[in-house]
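Many introductory courses stop at the sequence. We go one step further.
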Amino acid sequence: MAKNYFNFLQILFVFTCLLVLPTKVAAQCAGSDAQLDLCTTIADPVNQNISLFSLLGGTPVPGGTWTANTNPRGLDAVNGTLNAQVISSGGTYVYTYTAPVTAGCTNRTAKITIRIGAYAGVPAPYATVCSDENFFNLFTAFNGTVMAPHTNGVWTDSSGQPLPESSIPITDKKGAYQYTYTVPPVLACSTDSPSSTVIITVVRAPKEGTPSDLLICADTEISNYTDLDLNTRLSGQDGGGEWSGPGITSPTDHNVNLEDLYNARGPGEYQFNYTVYATPNNKVCPDKTAAVKVTIEKRLDFTGAKVDVVKDICEPEIPTAVYSATLTQGAQPIPNGQYEVTFNVSGPNGGSQTITSSFVNGVLNFPVSSSYFRQVGKFTLTITNIVATTSKRACVNIVNNLSDVLEVHPIPRLDGAVLTLDPTCQNKDALAYLKNATLLPDGNYNIVYNVTGDNFALGQTRNITVSGGEANFVIPGNLNRNSGASSIVITNITNTVTTCTNTANVRGNLIINPLPNAATVSVAVSDHCLNDPVSATISGLGNLTNITINYMLLGDNIASETITLTAVNGKAEFQIPAGLLLNTGSTIISLTNLKNDITGCDINLTNVLDSFIINPIPVPPTVNPQSFCKVDEAAVANLVPNGNQYKWYNSATSTTPLAGTLILESGNYYVRETSPAGCTSEAATVVVTINDSPAPVLNSDGQNFCGLNNPTISDLSNNTNVPSSVVWYDAPNNGNLLSSTTHLIEQGRYYGFNFPSTDCFSSEYIEVTVTLTECNNVPNDFFVPDGFSPNGDGTNDSFVIKDIEFLYPNYTLEIYNRYGNGMYKGDKNKPAWDGMNYEKSGIAGGVAPNGVYFYVLHFNKDNKPPQQGRLYLNR
């Protein structure tokens, strides 16, 4: 308070002066220059806080700032005080005061000049040091309670030789030494160079000597140390010291039996201390002790140990594979702890590495860098050394035959391979030849191939054996059902031993020649007398020209023959040798095989026969009960026997034959055979059965599911009476077969057919419209979000209540702004608000601003009351 009052009086005085004094006087705002002489009094403690402002002459205006013209050290520029004793050398120093801006000021600066004399310091009463400190800084010999000497002086020894620095070596010194510190003069104060003399007393320290530690392998060296003289493990020590440590029996004892110590205590580190005592009148230097450490270690034997490197990989795994190795101890137990394992890996990128890992219960696991295994090949990892991290390596551990082989298997490659196929016939096996597969090592492989073109089959598999880049395999006849051209493409190949697999694109073309058309083939033989030439006419051969026919004679004449014929306009004739027709009566000629001699394709013929009658009355046809699937829509033409000589009727007395396209029904059908002479046999009855599987039946509410469970076609099948045999399509006709894992969709329509493995495909079907809203239990994670950020970053861009369309399918959602204006109204058909205004209650369309909005959620289910809440829109 007094200080403030004083400042107020100062300001009042200055203001009064400005009013009464002439303008020239009022302009001296910074006061006038002044000087302070500290040539001989710099060591006075008052010089630690000099008020520069008080040194100014005139009437300076307070509140200005101070700056140092040369050396700012010790200056408090804010308060205008100077600690002159921290300035490190004598000289003249100038400090400038700048007064604050005041109206009428013409001179706002004034200077204070301070002269500081050279100062050499005051030595301490004494300085004693022990020689084991090695170096002594002479400046520490000055009296610490008095101002420190200026630092621009020079040290000299007793002979006047300058010292390079103030820190002097004292290791080999003993006794008293004199040094002088001289500071250059400050001519503004004096021409003399002040100096100070210090005397340093150096006391010799006891010498404990330099110890030499001993490292011993117990298994090979311990017997050599039954009487170790510890004095031999020191050099340069003072005599008369005392030894202590395990096995030392007295202060004068310096011999120890290390073998006895090892047998009693085992491996480890043993320390022996040699202590040299300072003389009684030496109060400066401490006693000195040297420690000799003897380390005794036991050799580790890894004979019988095993290393396993995990794991063999295939070539594509090279970039991502991770490897490790397991080392298992042999006959000698290995103590638990950390060990350094050194190993090398063979190969182009091989090398050596040392890792640190831990043995735990006889097993050590360590990682192996993948950089060693960057290409296909066999790599041998060999452990060359194992040593505990705590070991000083006194012993050479026994490490032999610790290796394992890791293999990077190549992927099988079919680059450049060629696939050729022998032409084949419909429904016949085709032989495929894989050649020029020079990149495939000999071995066994599984291939996957596709058949496209006139035949279609995907994902077919075959096992092949490759030798010399070649292999062959069979395309089974069931994949060659349609004549024409098929493309065979090998898409994948897997080595069955290494399991390495690779994609492929080896293509070959397969020509599938059509089988002769047996559907229209017929044979006709006219009645003949015994020994007359008998001609047979084969018709319905289509465009066949060169054929081979096998036929049999049945009835009163039994024989068989193979003949080669030339067909013209779909017909061929041949003469049955007379030697085959030796009996009168009814003879049936039956064609058993038809071969196209140009393509080599043949087909067995069934019921392609004719009866020529020696005896004018033919016998009724031989028939058997026949069954068909309703879905196949079998017609009369599918009945057996068939041919021009057979007619089918709907009753035993009917004379009007049935059309071949008439769809069959279950019941009796009747067939008659007409001989070339026009004789008609009695009707033969055939029991025809049209089989059908019943359409699947949907269980009650079987169409209802909870969408939260992600139901599939398999779940829909389980809701029928035939879950194991029902199949589903997406359309009743020409639809796509749906897999069991296909997910059901809301209001999706599905068409189910029954397809028992041993019965007929059902001709009828069920149509099911699925609903996914039968969700009665609300999951714990169902919640209404409390905000969204429609900023177009693809995350949380719209306000959506997850899964609500399954739980509350009839829900409605209304969103209002804080003024109660409607912003959005949604339901399951419009489930997401994108943060845009919707014109309602006077709110025009546009971008809704950031802020708090309020929603009302109407569940419209189970009388559950509406839910209200708020959400935050933040773009």
